[in-house]
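Page 37, continued from 36.
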């Protein structure tokens, strides 16, 4: 069974995501947001769906990706444990940085040298939140999100964007799960794991490709960049960096649960699965396991407002 601490898993994968995110797309987004901020008087408005415990907010600040000036950042997640942990994590993150954190109703304000980020936290289903919000945002972020929520919700989510606003869907799973060293059951485990993804409501083991298909068919939406953002977790020196050993143990627990929910007898018997899991867990303990997944980062824009006469 997977470890119970999902918030620790989200924290542990921060370093994995940091290595994986495509910097070229982030550069393009940074430039676009800076231009947008220059052209307007009010704050830049960001909506992150599936925000977890706030690691994307930390990253955007630490990597200087948000525009100077005021930013209104709305962080929404369906899990109340995530949203409850988010402000405290951000407050702890500022402790050794030139950023001050001040509590506000419903969130936290982060003040740096040249920007103020007002973070409002909401616990809600992303689509329900957008449908009930009487406002627009300049940037929509959904990290590791579209492969679990269902692409039928994509049009509604994009409707939250202001004219000319940006959407950014990094770490979107796209059909590859690999472990090393090789084990005879690897192919069967991967097939069954992906079938389980596809069978769950909203799940899609080829989400990256399917997002592109849908966006290209949507009038006015521009896909400005696509890049690989594969996870690669591997031992370095005497072990795994940061808390990535826990990250691997959580992934193995997730696979165990997933394969236990479906009839896998025609491909993978219980004894073979148990041997695969025991072998992989021992390899984590011995700092020998390598884990790779194939994912895509996707960036684009909503239709621009009509030109003035």
């Amino acid at each position: 069974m997977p470890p119970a601490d999902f918030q620790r898993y989200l924290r542990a994968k921060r370093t994995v995501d940091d290595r994986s995110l495509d910097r070229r797309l982030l550069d393009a987004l940074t430039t676009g947001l800076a231009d947008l901020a220059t052209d307007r008087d009010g704050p830049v408005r960001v909506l992150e769906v599936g925000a977890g415990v706030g690691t994307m907010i930390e990253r955007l600040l630490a990597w200087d990706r948000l525009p100077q000036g005021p930013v209104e950042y709305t962080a929404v997640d369906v899990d109340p444990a995530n949203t409850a942990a988010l402000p405290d994590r951000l407050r702890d993150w500022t402790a050794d940085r030139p950023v001050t954190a001040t509590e506000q109703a419903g969130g936290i304000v982060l003040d740096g040298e040249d920007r103020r980020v007002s973070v409002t936290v909401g616990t809600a289903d992303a689509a329900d939140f957008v449908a009930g919000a009487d406002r627009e945002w300049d940037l929509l972020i959904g990290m590791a999100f579209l492969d679990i929520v269902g692409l039928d919700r994509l049009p509604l989510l994009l409707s939250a964007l202001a004219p000319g606003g940006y959407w950014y869907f990094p770490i979107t799973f796209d059909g590859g799960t690999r472990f090393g060293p090789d084990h005879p059951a690897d192919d069967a485990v991967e097939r069954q794991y992906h079938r389980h993804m596809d069978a769950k409501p909203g799940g899609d083991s080829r989400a990256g490709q399917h997002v592109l298909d849908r966006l290209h068919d949507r009038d006015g939406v521009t896909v400005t960049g696509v890049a690989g953002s594969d996870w690669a977790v591997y031992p370095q020196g005497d072990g795994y960096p940061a808390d990535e050993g826990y990250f691997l143990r959580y992934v193995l627990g997730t696979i165990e649960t997933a394969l236990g929910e479906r009839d896998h007898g025609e491909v993978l018997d219980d004894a073979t699965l148990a041997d695969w899991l025991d072998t992989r867990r021992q390899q984590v303990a011995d700092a020998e396991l390598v884990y790779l997944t194939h994912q895509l980062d996707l960036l684009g824009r909503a239709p621009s407002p009509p030109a003035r006469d």
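DSSP finds eleven helices and ten strands in the chain. Flag for discussion at group meeting. The mean pLDDT is 92.
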